[in-house]
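[audit] Reproducing an earlier prediction to check determinism. Same input, same settings, fresh worker. If the tokens differ from the archived copy the diff job will pick it up downstream; this log only records the rerun itself.
[audit] input (157 residues):
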Amino acid sequence: MKISLMRFLVMGECPAEWLPLDLYLFRDGDTVFYVGRSYRAFDRVWNHIRNGYKARSDVGRFLLANWPRSLHFDIELLNSQSPAFDRVGRDAAAAEELLIRRHRPCFNDSLNDDPIALPAAYRPPSSPIRCPRSLRGLRSQAARAVREEEKPGWIAE
């Protein structure tokens, strides 16, 4: 399941069909920034975003520092119990490790022998936050971006 950050931010609650999803990726095209695992991936993605304000999550801080470009980043939510992870016995930890080894994400330190360097086009997590200082403001700008994208004749940059 793939969703843009802007659309994720305007969601009120986790849809019931997403409850079993326990793996997540933050990416922009082919560049994967982070792979994670959590009992409920939807909630963990929100934790990263909230903790970005407090500098407790590098990936959350990265999203806020790269605003508004990050609105177009994708979040992928996956289920470790899906057939895609048969070769690792549908084990959540092994599935996460498989994804980390496959994508070599920029911000994963453990299980990542050769992380991809953050491309120069992005601001590092240590950069100043460039978005609204509240979740309400963040969600409001995301909702505006979704409305703009849905207008007839909208063309992606």
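[audit] rerun output stored. Observation attached for the diff report: Residues 135-150 form the longest helix (16 residues).
[audit] end
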